[in-house]
Amino acid sequence: MRDQIPFPRTHDIRKILALLRPTYTALVGAVAEAEWLTQFGVEIRYPGDYPEMLPGDEKRALDLMRQVRDAVMDLLDSYLSEEAPPEGSVSPQSSK
Question: Is residue 91 part of a domain?
Answer without folding.
Answer: no
